[in-house]
Amino acid sequence: MRKEVIRANIVVFIASFCTLVIELVAGRIMAPYVGVSLYTWTSIIGVVLAGISIGAYLGGLIADRYPRPSTLGWLLFLSGLGAFSISPLTNLIGGAQFQTSLMIRILLLTTVIFFIPSCLLGMISPVVVKLTLNNLDKTGNVVGKIYAFSTLGSILGTFATGFFLISWMGTRHILLTMGIILIICSPIFGGFLRKRKTVALFFVFLFLLLVLPVAALYGYVAIWPETIPFPSSPIHSVETLYGYAFEPSLDEETYFLRKVIIIRSS
Q: For residue 222, what are the CA distances in angstroms to 73, 131, 215, 217?
């Protein structure tokens, strides 16, 4: 197996793994706001598939116009940012109320939160295929291997998330981990490490997008803490193996004991 094919298989495996992890985590992320119902899972599956479909179409156009490794690198990087955006975006608009039915509200929230990350991940496979196919006599063999490893990544992502990752890490940490994995893959598979100027540009861009906003938020809270609204009676949510458990604010010792009881009883 050629080196290019091996790299392509690894990239599509990681992208598909992250896609299915995000799709399964979506149900847990949305649960505190819209519940876990047939509407919720229908919206999640439909929106993610729509994002992948449109992403594959757009990725094909981008691959023909910019057939170079840096295109793949930037798509991986943007996909990582998309994974990072899910949790804060859910916290920001999850409780928004629309003058529509519950079904439409769930569909709108799911689309806003998960469509763009799914679309970005869907763009990766066409670019990988374009970069790998330099011999048309073996098109079926190469595409078949790429599709097989992509599907294998989806399968392992499904079982790993449902059986292990959620119980080990929790939904927010999983999304953070997927974003980190995709961003780390960006310079590795995008060829950014070959040129010093490109490496410097990549890390400057990363600094501007990640470090500065976080630093600004902490500075804002430190200087004007009274302007940050906090509820008078906060509700703690405990994530168990089967869902969320909610309880009112307690002192630290009592809350810890109840958290242990809830997790063990589940």
A: 36, 48, 11, 9
- Sequence spans of domains, the chain: 3-196, 235-265
How many helices, marked H, and strands, marked E, lie in the chain?
A: 11, 2
* Res. 97 pLDDT band, cuts 50 70 90: confident
**70 vs 60: CA distance, rounded Å:** 15
Q: Choose which CATH entry (2.40.50.140, 2.60.120.10, 1.20.1250.20, 3.40.30.10) describes domain 3-196.
A: 1.20.1250.20
CB 174 within 8 A of CB 161: yes
Q: Which residues lie across from 162 on neighbouring strands?
A: none
Crossing angle between the packed helical segments 124-132 and 3-34, to the nearest 10 degrees: 180
Residue 181 token pair: 């994995």
Does 265 score more than 80 pLDDT? no
φ, ψ at 238 (rounded to 5°):
-110, 125
The SS3 call for residue 245 is strand
Question: CA-to-CA distance for 106 and 113, rounded, in angstroms?
Answer: 11
For the whole model, what pTM was predicted?
0.76
